[in-house]
Amino acid sequence: MDLGKLTALQLAEKIKQHQISVLDGVKYVFDQIEAKEDKVHAYLDTYKKEAYARAKEVQKGIEDGTYTGPLAGVPVAIKDNICIKGKTTTCASKILENFVPQYNAEVIDRLEQAGLVIIGKTNMDEFAMGSTTETSAYGVTRNPWDLEHVPGGSSGGSCAAVAAGETYLALGSDTGGSIRQPSSYCGVTGIKPTYGTVSRYGLVAYASSLDQIGPVGKDVADCAALLEIIAGHDAKDSTSMKREDLDFSASMTDKIVGMKFGVPKEYLSEGLNPEVKEAFMNTLKDLTEMGAVVEFFSMKTTEYMIPAYYIIASAEASSNLERFDGVKYGFRAKEYEGLHDMYKKTRTEGFGEEVKRRIMLGSFVLSSGYYDAYYLKALRTKALIKKEFDQAFSKYDVLLAPASPFTAPKLGESLKDPLAMYLGDIYTVAVNLCGLPGITVPCGKDAAGLPIGIQMIGDCFKENNLFRAAHAYEKKRGDFGTAMEGGKRHETV
Hints:
The chain is α/β, with parallel strands linked by helices and about 500 residues long. The chain has helices at about 10-15, 20-40, 50-65, 105-115, 155-165, 180-185, 220-230, 275-290, 300-320, 340-350, 355-365, 370-395, 415, 420-425, 430-435, 465-475, and strands spanning about 45, 75-80, 115-120, 170-175, 190, 210-215, 260-265, 295, 400, 440-445, 450-460. About 40% of the residues lie in helices and about 15% in strands.
């Protein structure tokens, strides 16, 4: 049996039926890591010994009825900004190189209660700031479809690990597209849930009003099953919502007859790569053939989304990252004179260029004299963007957009021009500004064989619409293939 062909749900089902053991699945994942990791570099740390011990424990738990969930026994990887008790959590930054949390994030407890097996920590852009996983202090992650290209970011390690078969499922976090964009580049499925659906307790904060943890999987059904496990109210997180409608898998049918999809015209204007546009338009055609209604409409606030997002995100980052100063934990400069010098040198040496850039930008927009001109204006703009989305959702069930204006760039290209990298988030940031859910599903490949993803955006708490639409489209699209299947472009993996 080729375990690489199985989705997470299929693997769990075979474990339940005693066709394979939990250990088989875990061993398969570590075999893949062994074969590919030196090229892909999706992980910062793996827990082989603990995972094997946990596999035996879960096997026993499945047999005696302790673990009955649909994903019991499945290996899962965790982005390195989510705390696991007793395991190094670095956020891919030098400043946290020796930080070991004394507690679990809420999502980790939920995974363990559901009988999943944690494989290790995945690489990311430092403090989730970046769109390529190149700002990591511990080396770049490569795209399994073509090793000369980036996997996207900031959850690039999680998406690359799923794409390369180095795990079945992964958790990422999404502040401005950090799950959806790398999912698109790596040809996997990822969802950013409605803000407040998943507890942020134990997630190292970047921008607290925008961050949300979400699942990455091989297909829509895997993501729905994983989201059901991690979603739910948590008293330890003040932004956590009480929701009753968390049965996401139930909404998945093959039919979307009569569903109304809206496409913002502005999302198809300049800057969109012709191949991405073609794949996107073909998807619209598929949805129409399936009986859905697809209409174009105008989203006038589009040009303000990027500036509003980067002002708000940087402002929140500058205050969130104040705590990393070399006093209590993490990295401390070796040589300094006095307390002030220690702060200065620790932060200068500990943070990477992109993080420093955003801290300075954030400190600037929050400083007196500029607060009103930039930060308050950005908050007012955010309210206008939200209003425009509300109007759109009064007409449409789901909005459609590309996940990114282009396919995965080559390594080294994006960091030359940070501004161009920021503009690459044009289709994803509004979802975070407005707290909306968004899912990315693979919908095509460019001439070089790199994946293209379509993004579906839902109204707050309407993930069910997304799962329904994405699952039906996936069924129509058929098998997307994997990065491991060989062929000229992929043989290096």
